[in-house]
Amino acid sequence: MDGSTIVARNEDGYGPVNPIKFVVHPATDQTQATFTSAVTGVTVPLPDHAYRYTGTPQADQSDGQYEEAGINELNVGMSATETTATNARVLGYDPLVNDGINEEAMVTLVLPYIKTAKEGAQRLGALLEKYGTGESNSIAFNDHNEIWYLETAGGHHWAAMRLPEDTYAIAPNQTLMQEVDLTDNDNFLVATDLVDFVEKNHLNPTPGSFNFREIFGTHGEDDAYYNTPRTWYGQTLFNPEITDQEPTDQDMPFTRKPAKKIAIEDVQFFLSSHYNGTPYDPFGTYASGSANDQRKYRPIAMDRNQCSSILQIRNDVDADHAAIQWIAMGFFAYAPYVPFFTNINDTPVDYQNTTTSVDVNNVYWLNKTLSVIIEPHFHEYVESVNAFREGCQSYARSRVAATDAAVGGDVTAFLTQSNAETAGEISKRTHALFDELVKHGLNLSKTAWEKGQNL
To answer: What is the pTM of this model?
Structure first.
């Protein structure tokens, strides 16, 4: 609605616990520096200068940083990664590798060294070709002009596309890019040997076109029940006029022009949704569905949620305060999104002090603890939770406007302090919700007896 580019993601773990923090790394000069992966052991030489950038790494980094999402000082955003899959036929010719560049290293190796979204796709693509990868992934980049989306294929191959103007794309753990125009370098990038690789190994089932999804992707039952329903729900939100798609459809388009312009609040709703208003809502809130329907499809918001980021690069303000990383931690159906300007030199204490043990004095564990309280009594608490989230949403919007209006002087110091004030107020409100729900919950005990009750 305001001309921004937006890249947004939910980070999920394989289990419900994976403590996350929000940090900012200063710009550094680092002659002859290298990066060595804690996961694969690969060592990669680094450029001499690293730009300042934000990230959302794991609190426990014994198995890697997994910085996942951030924005650098040149207002370039990166989300890495969305876990996907390459089909078995392709992997027979280009298997995944054990000593390459995986998700845990991608933001660290790319975001501090790029000036544009397209450069991000180019740098990551070159690294994948040289070192390989042990996973299939999709990665998104944005700057104030463009959004680029890259998908890996096998151990060393990839392609990237520039999203068309005024469109959105939804990527639910599946290889999704469709027609790639190999002659259009302004809008598509591919691995240097991709065409030869496909031709040599007879991988293209649709000669005369180059459909990346058909060549490299999967179309299994797991896609139909784990992945495509999330695209279906998002496209029903942003294009409600489309009524001929089913949740298990395997041929939904990757990009669409929305029926109306999209705001940050629309993105927040989608990322924190659970098939609201349909028979597939596991909470069964507004639509009647059988117990089987409510467990049929993998929801977007779920107890495995860890950290959600919305990377917004705005075009209606000066560049020194144009970039905002909206962050929610915990179970996103309950947690509020907090807007953090990224031209900063520090992050709020309760966002960076995440521990591996439960401690409600950091935001990650505060929101995770709230989800334990809320889920068993969702319908008793939902009115309070929704009022809390909507209040935080309005407050966040007002804080962005107030900060824009007052920015000046040492902009980095000003935005760092503004972030602290915004986060402090939302943390205060979250603790107040925690207090309210704990007290409410104590009155829901099945063993509670009222004074004077007949024994």
So the answer is: 0.97
